[in-house]
Write a structure and sequence with these properties.
Organism: Streltzoviella insularis
Structural class: mainly alpha
Keywords: Disulfide bond, Transport
Family: Belongs to the PBP/GOBP family.
Order of helices and strands: HHHHHHHH
Pfam families: PBP_GOBP
Disulfide bonds: 62-97, 93-151, 140-160
CATH class: Mainly Alpha
Number of helices: 8
Strand content: under 5%
Length: 185
């Protein structure tokens, strides 16, 4: 076999090896990216669960203080179910009360960005996620049609927020939520 043929065979073998290594490298990179995204989504779901549980801890106080009916319990229990329609005006009233108790609203009734950012971080969000959550709420405040009834207005913002969290696949699973509620009892 002459050296020219050997060079051709060597180059072909090298190209095949390089192509195989490149393909394997791409697969490894794709797996790493998928795992990073998947773990981000799972950690985001866990953070949303923690925030939801802690947000709702004062619900009994708000119900008592405002004379809210027990019918709102179903809205809070089913809130993150994608096919569940939150529609009770009193649920909006309860969200206002809970947000006020947690210092998440400013004196004008709008979202207090600093306190909301800290609330998210306290429950595991990093700065990027906390900012994204605030941006979503701000976007929902802008896109929800104005209503003189603050409870209806808040209900609209909550529906928008829920829809956006579902688009990100950050909504906590009902299994996690039920387990957490049972653990709290």
């Amino acid at each position: 076999m002459d050296s020219e043929v050997a060079d051709i065979i060597y180059k072909e073998a090298l190209q095949k090896y390089t192509a195989k290594m490149l393909t394997q490298t791409k697969i490894v990179v794709l797996v790493i990216v998928y795992l990073a995204i998947d773990s981000r989504v799972e950690s985001s779901k866990e953070i949303m669960k923690e925030m939801t549980v802690n947000f709702g801890k004062a619900l009994a106080d708000c119900k008592k203080e405002m004379g809210l009916p027990d019918s709102i319990d179903a809205d809070f229990y089913n809130f993150w179910k994608e096919d569940y329609e939150v529609s009770n005006r009193y649920t909006g009233c309860a969200i206002i009360c809970l947000s006020t108790k947690l210092d998440l609203v400013d004196p004008d009734g709008g979202l207090h960005h600093g306190n909301a950012h800290e609330f998210a971080k306290k429950h595991g969000a990093d700065d990027a996620m906390a900012k994204q959550l605030i941006d979503i709420i701000h976007q929902c405040e802008k896109s929800t049609p104005r209503n003189d009834d603050g409870c209806i207005m808040m209900l609209g913002i909550a529906k928008c927020f829920k829809a956006e969290i579902h688009k990100l696949d950050w909504a906590p699973s009902m299994d996690l939520m039920v387990g957490e509620v049972i653990a709290e009892v």
